[in-house]
Amino acid sequence: MDDIVKAAMAKWPNVPDCYGWLGLDARGNWYMRDDRVQAAGAFPASKGSLLRHEKLIDFIQRNYAADAEGQWYFQNGPQRVYVELEAAPWIWRLQPDGRVLSHSGLSVHVQDSLLDELGRLYLVTDLGLGLVHSADMALAADAVEAGRWVPRDMRASELPARHAFVQSPQQRAARQPDAGTKKPVD
For residue 94, what are the β-bridge partners? Predict the structure, then answer.
C-alpha cells in the first residue's frame, strides 16, 4: 500500500466505506460506476465508464486488497472503495514463457486449475483465485495439453464460497442495516 494512503488512513480513520462505485470485469478492466450507472443495474450488466488513465489504474492496483470477509477493495486514501467483481478477484495473463501474471502485473505460482460450466478457466495461485483472460486461452490450452494443469470441474456459483471472496460487496452491504452506498471522497 502506498505511504500516502497509509498517512491518510491515520489522519482520517473514520471515513465511511464506499460501495458500488468501482468494478473489475472479466478482462481485468476497471470501471467507474456513478449514481446513474448504479441505478441502471448491477455490475457487470451496467458497467459504467472504462478507466483509461494509466496512473490512476496503477494507483488502484497498488492499493487493491481484501478485507477479512473476502470483499475486495481499493484503499483510496482514508476510504475503502469496495469492488464489484464480474468473475473473480484476479484476472490472469499468461505469458509465452509460462509465467502467469495478475491483471496488476504480479507474478504468481499456479496451485490448481478449475473449469466452470461455461468453459472458463480459473487458476488457484499463491495470491488466490482468478480467471484466465479470454485472449490467453491458446496458451492455457497448451498448458493443459502439456499436463502442467489438470482442470477440475467446478460451478461458477460455487467459487465465491469455496475461495472466500464476495462478488458484490454492494449487494452484501444492502442486506446489512448499518451499511450504505457512499460516494468516493476526493
Answer: 100
Answer for the pair 91, 98: CB distance below 8 angstroms, yes or no: no
The label of the residue with cell 471472496 reads 165
Q: Please, are residues 46 and 33 in contact by the beta-carbon 8 Å criterion?
A: yes
Residue written as cell 514463457? 97
Q: Beta strands 121-125 and 128-132: pairing type? A: antiparallel
Record the pTM.
0.87
d(CA 65, CA 61): 9
The DSSP 8-state label assigned to residue 36 in this structure reads: H
Q: Does residue 176 have a pLDDT over 60?
A: yes
* Mean pLDDT, the chain, whole residue set: 91
Q: What is the pLDDT of residue 14?
A: 72
Four-residue CA torsion sign, 61, 67, 72, 75: negative
> 165: which DSSP letter?
-
Contact in structure between 71 and 170 (CB atoms under 8 Å): no
